[in-house]
Design brief:
Blueprint (H helix, E strand, L loop, with lengths): L11 H16 L17 E5 L2 E4 H14 L7 H25 L5 H9 L19 H10 L6 H30 L5 H11 L1 E11 L12 H10 L1 H4 E2 L3 E10 L4 H13 L1 H6 L3 H8 L20 H4 L7 E7 L2 E25 L12 H16 L4 H8 L10 E6 L5 H9 L5 E6 L2 E25 L4 H17 L3 H11 L4 E7 L4 E2 L3 E2 L1 H7 L11 E3 L2 E11 L2 E2 L2 H25 L5 H8 L4 E7 L4 E2 L3 E2 L1 H7 L12 E2 L3 E12 L6 H16 L2 H8 L2 E3 L6
Antiparallel strand pairs: 1-2, 1-22, 3-17, 3-21, 4-16, 5-11, 5-15, 6-7, 7-8, 7-10, 9-10, 12-13, 14-15, 18-19, 20-21
Helix pairs in contact: 1-5, 1-6, 2-3, 3-6, 6-23, 8-20
């Protein structure tokens, strides 16, 4: 339904003071090192990075701050736990590098950051009229508040502004050291330039691996294990993973549940139509959509069926109709002509701080002050001056003006005064924020607007539906004592068995199920063959079984098989093809014995070994540019896609079209981009102990 926006934030002056307080503790220090705070008193250790502890108390404080910062953005606690953990690990591995290199942020550097053009404080200390960063105002505020002490505010601003600024500066220094350390010697530059400009033409015979059926080639676990051992870095796992299978039992609303809600909505239709107090009726009947006592034009309505809604006669009810998971009745309360946008100015005498929901002043005091302002303006007092002096709104320095804004953007009483009163109207308006002395300055584009009341009920599962799903899941769980029973019961119940592979102990996301930290914790508390009790996940109950445990270290044959088996199979196919189909020592003989054709490619680039219609073949490219094979057939080559034999015709250079300096800069840019992956390398090399699963 319609979204009603509140009047903008009124608390900038509070933030101003808090920031000023916090800066004192840092600007006036003798020096700032690596920006690492003192440990909290708690001895609980959530993890270690190269022996350096990450304390749970400190971690929890940062987690709670992240929750407050991202509360309105849909981030879950589980996601934020992972985010804060990654930040702490990153901070630890980098701080250890900073210490080795002696990197610091001096008080002067910190001051330059906080007061410079990219200051993290710009938003709080920006002149609303000019957009200019008010450096002197910030410095004056700090000087005035040097003696203030508030440890909680200092800690919060340190975490939100100061510490991130220090860490950002240190990271930039470290990154610059890595980037500036890149160098390309002349011999390498010449070699790379020559290689990139080399082109070759060649003839070849190609026999694809598909000519040998997969069923004729078997790959054993021992062969996979041998391959894994030879390529241990590629297959080494830092932590244990587990696999599960699961079935689901839906507790979503049934057809009977939907019908029950529909009948409930129908039962109130006549009363809704008869009532003269829609707001009281909706409250009494428990509508799940609050009443908005204001008007909207058709263009501002967000309903898909608004063409129908605007045609409802005044006093009549339309519906029930389905809208976004609910059954809805719509009643036309009133219709009139309104502008589509208005311009006003106001002076807000606040009673509530919208940031903290704490009282600013007593209601009677606010009303008396608003009335006094109204009287003063009626007698000729300057509106702008009174707004600057008394208004609690953030636009006080702009004369309290809200330039043309659309219907429904402000809270209802303020909105209605702005659009319902003619231009030039003045008066005091009461809202949840306080009292507004308001003047309508302008209006545009008059047209029809509508006040519509909505009675809505969400289609929810009944207790019977939920109980039936829970009971079915419980019976399945009780009857499934092992993997054999689990699979047989799933088949009997017509349930699809869904896999969930490579789960890690600190994961929060389950494939196909979304966020469910409780189920992940259960997976790592038992062993293979364990079957869970029913767990509620969204609108379904889940029963899971642990199917595999893969310990940290080298991957097992079962884990590595999906990647390794195709490689080893192709090696065996290559041997079969070479022994059976490549007879002789010329391309023509190879073509005859393999039943293939001699083909030709005129322009293979050394820097891009891609064969048209086949794919990337580095081994083939290496042979083409081997000058000993010019006008001579090669031995069979086991490539990525099949077996080749080639005969090089010509090898030469082409004009690159790029001057040497541009080529050098491009190469340097590429190596510098690799430098940005330094953190990833540091993290892989670090000894990290992760105990999060004990606490989250």
């Amino acid at each position: 339904m319609s979204v009603i926006q509140s009047i903008r934030d009124k608390g900038a002056w509070i933030i101003f003071g808090i920031i000023a307080l916090a800066l004192i503790a840092f600007i006036l220090q003798d020096g700032v090192g690596r920006g690492r705070g003192a440990a909290f008193s708690t001895a609980s250790v959530i993890g270690k990075v190269n022996g350096e502890k990450i304390l749970r108390g400190e971690f929890e404080e940062k987690l709670q701050m992240q929750e407050r910062m991202y509360a309105g953005q849909g981030a879950t606690r589980e996601q934020l736990v992972a985010s804060v953990w990654n930040q702490e690990v990153e901070k630890a591995v980098l701080s250890q590098q900073y210490e080795k290199l002696g990197l610091q942020v001096t008080p002067k550097e910190l001051g330059d950051i906080l007061y410079g053009p990219n200051s993290p404080l710009r938003q709080e200390f920006t002149d609303p009229k000019t957009g200019e960063f008010m450096v002197n105002n910030a410095r004056q505020a700090i000087a005035q508040l040097k003696k203030s002490t508030n440890s909680e505010q200092l800690k919060a601003i340190n975490a939100a502004y100061i510490e991130p600024s220090i860490q950002k500066a240190l990271r930039e220094k470290y990154q610059n050291l890595l980037i500036q350390g890149n160098y390309l010697p002349k011999w390498m530059l010449s070699k790379l330039e020559a290689d990139n400009n080399t082109m070759g033409s060649f003839s070849y015979v190609f026999v694809p691996y598909q000519t040998v059926g997969d069923s004729t080639v078997k790959v054993s676990d021992d062969e996979i294990n041998t391959y894994v051992s030879k390529h241990s870095k590629q297959f080494k796992k830092a932590e244990e993973t587990r696999n599960i299978s699961y079935v689901t039992f839906s507790s979503a609303p049934s057809a009977a549940d939907s019908a029950a809600v529909l009948n409930q909505v129908r039962s109130v239709k006549s009363g809704f139509e008869a009532t003269t107090d829609a707001e009281a009726f909706l409250t009494k009947e428990g509508s799940e959509l609050p009443f908005y006592n204001g008007f909207f034009s058709k263009s501002r309505m967000q309903q898909a069926n608004k063409d129908t809604l605007v045609k409802i006669p005044v006093g009549q009810v339309y519906g029930p109709y389905f809208d976004g998971g609910s059954y809805v009745l719509a009643k036309m309360i009133a219709a009139k002509q309104w502008p589509d946008s208005a311009k006003v100015r106001h002076i807000l005498i606040g009673t509530i701080n919208p940031q903290t929901n704490q009282p600013i002043r007593e209601d009677s005091v606010a009303r008396k002050l608003a009335d006094s302002i109204q009287t003063a303006i009626a007698r000729g007092a300057n509106f702008d001056s009174l707004a600057a002096k008394y208004s609690d709104d953030g636009n006080k320095d702009k004369g309290g003006v809200y330039d043309y804004f659309p219907q429904g953007q402000m809270v209802a009483p303020f909105n209605d005064f702005s659009f319902d009163k003619p231009v030039g109207s003045k008066g005091v308006v009461k809202t949840d924020f306080g009292y507004h002395y308001t003047e309508v300055l302008g209006q545009k584009n008059v047209g029809p607007v509508y006040k519509i009341a909505y009675y809505a009920k969400t289609i929810s599962p009944s207790a019977e539906t939920i109980s039936a799903a829970n009971n079915a899941a419980a019976q399945f769980s009780a009857a499934s004592k092992n993997a054999k029973d689990f699979n047989a019961n799933a088949l009997k119940a017509g349930k699809s068995i869904i896999p969930g592979n490579e789960l890690k102990q600190n994961d929060a996301m389950l494939p196909g199920l979304g966020m469910n930290r409780a189920l992940i914790r259960w997976v790592f508390e038992g062993g293979v063959g364990d079957v869970s009790e029913p767990m509620e996940v969204g609108d379904q109950y889940v029963v899971a079984i642990v199917t595999a445990v893969h310990k940290a270290g080298l991957a097992s044959a079962a884990e590595a098989r999906p990647m390794v088996e195709p490689i080893l199979r192709n090696e065996k196919k290559a041997k079969i093809i070479i022994e059976s189909k490549f007879k002789g020592n010329t391309l023509e003989a190879f073509a005859t014995s393999s039943g293939s054709l001699v083909q030709r490619m005129d322009s293979l680039s050394f820097s891009a070994p891609f064969l048209t219609g086949i794919g990337s073949e580095p081994k083939v490219a290496g042979a083409v540019f081997n000058k000993s094979l010019v006008n001579k057939a090669s031995s069979p080559i086991a490539g990525n896609n099949g077996v080749f034999a080639i005969r090089t015709e010509t090898v030469g250079a082409k004009a690159s079209g790029m001057d040497p300096e541009s080529f050098r800069q491009n190469l340097l840019q590429g190596t510098r981009m690799i430098s940005y992956r330094g953190l990833e390398a540091l993290r892989r090399a670090a000894d990290i102990k992760d105990n999060r699963a004990k606490y989250y």
